[in-house]
């Protein structure tokens, strides 16, 4: 959080919209929220524990049926992911970095990069050290070292248009929300002219990040619409104005992979965000830069050999 704030100041832009995050704990099972409280306290993150009555008073546009209580994190919010990536790129170029849009061919990567990398435009790239942060594609580039340790799943995201002139579902009036029931549904209010987001965090079917079909399923669309009408009655007949398919890049324990290639000292593999990697970007960047430049060893939590033990 501190690094996001630092970068906002440094670049004079807003990356994080601080409209708060509301976690709705289900009447049947509130284990996730219950066990989050001591961790929030320990980390010094401000939060309020709210009764259903209090939540209904603050956010009358939400139907709290099936909710027992809630956690509101006033300093939370949502990140402008695409814009943040563009800002990183601009910052990198401004500091003298060079960007090339080309792909590394996977041939021979597992055997070391002694002769440099072969790029899809036919050229070569040689460096003292290499960092591969290729998200869901990591297993394709390193089939032996990573293979199925990074498993891509299909995730569907829906955006609905609120009724004309109705601002109850905008970021000024609604926080980001998460609803733990049989499925973990979450979303965010409208912002920047985008629709009201509804998404299901449940891991979808396995997905090929290059050739997978990027159209949403009828079942996913039905579930999102039913949920929307139930939890946000004012959005019941809202039109679906945008839908996206993207992929999570899951590791077996949902933790990152940050390690040297087991056979090649100067090749680093970084990834495995497992659906929660973006917010960690600045911290991860700082950590990886230090490991690579100062030849340090990564935290055992992130090392590849943890999978050999299980
Ligand atoms: C629907 C959805 C919701 C999410 N919600 C959240 C959230 O709420 N909070 C959160 O923190 N995170 C969230 N995430 C996860 C987050 O987006 C990812 O963990 C994060 O973007 C991973 O970053 P990365 O840089 O490791 O990989 P990516 O962003 O996937 O980047 C990998 C890059 O590698 C490039 N590449 C691949 N192969 C090659 C090659 N051969 N040569 C050169 N380049 C190559 C790709 O083009 C790509 O640019 C969500 C993800 C999804 C899909």
Overview of this structure, please?
This protein is an alpha+beta fold. The chain is 26% helix and 25% strand. It is built from eight helices and 15 strands. The protein has helices at 2-11, 31-43, 52-58, 81-94, 138-141, 218-231, 281-293, 305-309, and strands at residues 16-17, 21-26, 48-51, 67-73, 78-79, 117-118, 124-125, 130-132, 151-160, 176-180, 184-188, 196-200, 240-250, 257-261, 264-271. The strands form four sheets. Strands 3-4-2-10-11-12-9-13 form an eight-stranded mixed sheet, sandwiched between helices. The chain has a three-stranded mixed sheet with strand order 8-15-14, with no helix packed on it. A hairpin with a 5-residue loop joins β6 and β7 (124-125). The longest helix has 14 residues, at 81-94. The relative contact order is 0.14. The model has no long low-confidence stretch (mean pLDDT 96).
Number of strands: 15
SS-derived structural category = alpha+beta
In spatial order, strands of the major sheet run: 3-4-2-10-11-12-9-13
What letter string, H or E per element, gives the SSE order? HEEHEHEEHEEEHEEEEHEEEHH
Helix content: 25-40%
Number of helices, counting only DSSP H or I runs of 4 residues or more: 8
Largest sheet: 8 strands, mixed
Q: Enumerate the spans where pLDDT stays under 50 for 5 or more consecutive residues.
A: none
Q: What is the C-alpha radius of gyration, as a whole number of Å?
A: 21 Å
Q: How confident is the prediction overall: mean pLDDT?
A: 96
Head-to-tail CA distance between termini: 33 Å
User: What are the bound molecules?
Assistant: flavin-adenine dinucleotide
| Portion in strands | 15-25%
User: What is the 3D shape?
Assistant: globular
What is the oligomer described by this structure? single chain
């Amino acid at each position: 959080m501190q690094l996001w704030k630092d970068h906002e100041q440094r670049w004079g832009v807003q990356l994080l919209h601080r409209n708060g995050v509301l976690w709705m704990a289900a009447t049947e099972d509130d284990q996730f929220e219950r066990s989050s409280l001591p961790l929030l306290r320990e980390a010094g993150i401000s939060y309020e524990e709210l009764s259903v009555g209090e939540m209904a008073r603050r956010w009358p546009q939400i139907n709290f049926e099936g909710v027992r209580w809630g956690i509101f994190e006033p300093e939370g919010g949502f990140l402008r992911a695409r814009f943040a990536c563009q800002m990183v790129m601009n910052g990198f170029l401004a500091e003298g970095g060079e960007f090339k849009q080309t792909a590394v061919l996977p041939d021979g990567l597992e055997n070391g990069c002694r002769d440099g990398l072969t790029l899809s435009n036919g050229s070569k790239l040689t460096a003292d050290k290499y960092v591969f942060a290729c998200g869901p594609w990591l297993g394709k580039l390193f089939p032996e070292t990573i293979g199925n340790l990074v498993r891509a799943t299909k995730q569907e995201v829906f955006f609905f248009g609120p009724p004309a002139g109705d601002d109850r579902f905008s970021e000024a009036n609604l926080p980001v929300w998460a609803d733990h029931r049989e499925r973990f549904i979450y979303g965010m209010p409208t912002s920047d002219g985008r629709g009201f987001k509804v998404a299901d965090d449940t891991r979808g079917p396995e997905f090929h990040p290059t050739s997978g079909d990027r159209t949403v399923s009828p079942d996913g669309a039905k579930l999102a619409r039913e949920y929307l009408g139930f939890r946000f009655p004012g959005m019941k007949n809202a039109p679906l104005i945008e839908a996206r398919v993207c992929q999570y890049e899951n590791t077996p324990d949902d933790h990152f992979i940050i390690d040297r290639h087991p056979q090649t000292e100067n090749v680093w593999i970084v990834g495995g965000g497992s659906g929660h990697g973006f917010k960690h970007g600045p911290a991860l960047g700082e950590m990886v830069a230090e490991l690579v430049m100062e030849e340090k060893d990564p935290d055992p939590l992130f090392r590849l050999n943890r999978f050999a033990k299980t």
